[in-house]
Amino acid sequence: MVRHDGCMSARVRAPELRGRGWLNTGGRDLKLADLRGKIVIADFWTFCCINCLHVLDELRPLEEKYGDVLVVIGVHSPKFEHEKDADALAAAVERYGVHHPVLDDPELDMWQQYAARAWPTLSVIDPEGYVVATMAGEGHAEGLARLIDELIAAHEAKGTLHRGNGPYVPPPAPETALRFPGKAVLLPNGNLLVSDSARHSLVEIDPDGETPVRRIGSGERGRADGPAAAATFSEPQGVCLLPTHVAEVAGYDLVVADTVNHLLRGVRLESGEVVTVAGSGRQWRAEVDDHAHDAFAVDLSSPWDLAWYDDKLIIAMAGIHQLWWFDPIKRTAGMYAGTTVEALRDGPLAEAWMAQPSGLSVSADGTRLWVADSESSAVRYVENGVLGTAVGQGLFDFGHVDGPAESALLQHPLGVCALPDGSVLIADTYNGAVRRFDPASNQVSTVADGLAEPSDLVLTPSGEVLVVESAAHRLTRLAPGALSAAGASTVDGPRHRTERKPTDVAAGEVTLDIVFTPAPGQKLDETYGPSTRLVVSASPPELLVDGAGTGTELSRRLVLNGEVTAGVLQVTAQAATCDADVEHAACHLTRQDWGVPVRVVDGAVTRLPLVLRGLDA
């Protein structure tokens, strides 16, 4: 194998696949020997991670095109405590339409065996059982297709490629009225509209919270506009009613975050007709700017929730760790808050850092926008042009702890609901709880627990609270009195920290190298400026004496503070490539964020390599 620094390394035999169990195999345990003769992609993922979900969608066309020679193995190496639960993993595999075998790796044994450092990481194994490529992050579909074509040609010539069906065995199809509902909104007629995410549609439900009235969308995955019965979505999430005066001009009443399609869709409630109102359908991979863009031409990235705030529709753009805005009348859209760096940092909107914002709610007086910032297990808020944090401590600290907000902990919350008294309810998804934060007392309490991945909350005019209990496939009413002081409880549960093995590095000068090799048939593209970009920061900031900031080289001299014994290096790298020596060459952008735990130790390594993309020679 040739690295970017010109050094050679021997062929690496793929480590054996071992874990707690397998899904989507009909109960069979797979070994690498069972896959000999096939090209294998081991996809190291965790189901909380939006980048991992993007990769699942990137792999679908490859699985279809190369179905007789390619086997994708999902290796689930979890971040959060909840993700270690076998039942939760099985639900996620169904929720996200994973149609390949999945190995349960709860202790990250395979993650370490394959030297993964980031979610997601892809390892490509050839038909003879050798690792021939490693890729971190998303955006590798084109490169993978070229590599697969090369491997097919080489191994057919050698006689080592075996065509035929793979080991995937689909589980039995479930029957429920809803399947992994995501978000809900109260309609003017008193009914509820729920995004039925795993069935790629919207369902209008009677005020009893149980009886379906009508379905908008065919139930098939797609992106077609049209009448209610023919329109299609792909894993829709957030839904938001427009103000009446805006809806009259726009021509539709409600906007849907069509998450996997990277689109916003408009719905006319009277007829159920669906129209696309924003998004090109391409996933955003560009440079950050503060310009207004034509809403139909702009690229979005996994819009997850919506709220009307500051006289515009605000979008929780989970895929790039930002908030965006959309103007339905001017038909323009642009960035509202965040820099695309995945971390927790407060400050002016253009400088703040977020981590997969997934839920939005506006305070009763309209002054504050509450944000469920899921990957940082935090509740954030926008007010007076600044992003603040109410509850939460960062990417790697989570748990179920009530009490003073500065020490309270959540676990991957996906929803928020502002209450008339100024407090906010939290769908604390991976704790299976509804929590409440009261700014007046600065206290967090638990309102209800024992729920199955609550993902949203709806407050009715009568003061009732409905919970979208996603993994139970239903809406659930909170008990009367749950919101009273007597109805809340104080939980002092476990505190968790994501413990990935830290990398020992030396104090003083350390060289950070991003290993990147263009895919077969591609070259670095400098048509619109430098082809590469590297952003480095640290938590705590004092860890880095020198080397923080943004540059265009994929190698950076860092100076680490010997008085800070441990921390996290936050690294974002991207590389632009285009097809080489062809007319009308297609362009591609590869991007990855790393949070690298480090321990500063005398005499440790002075070079830190991270693989954005590495290939066999």
From TrEMBL:
PROSITE patterns with a match to the protein in the record: THIOREDOXIN_2 (PS51352)
Xref: InterPro entries: 6-blade_b-propeller_TolB-like, NHL2_NHL_rpt_dom, NHL_repeat, Thioredoxin-like_fold, Thioredoxin-like_sf, Thioredoxin_domain
Annotated Basic and acidic residues bias: 211-224
Protein name: NHL repeat-containing protein
Species of provenance: Micromonospora saelicesensis
Residue ranges of every copy of the Thioredoxin domain listed in the record: 8-153
Pfam families: NHL (PF01436), Thioredoxin_8 (PF13905)
Region annotated Disordered, chain positions: 208-228
Keywords from the named record: Repeat
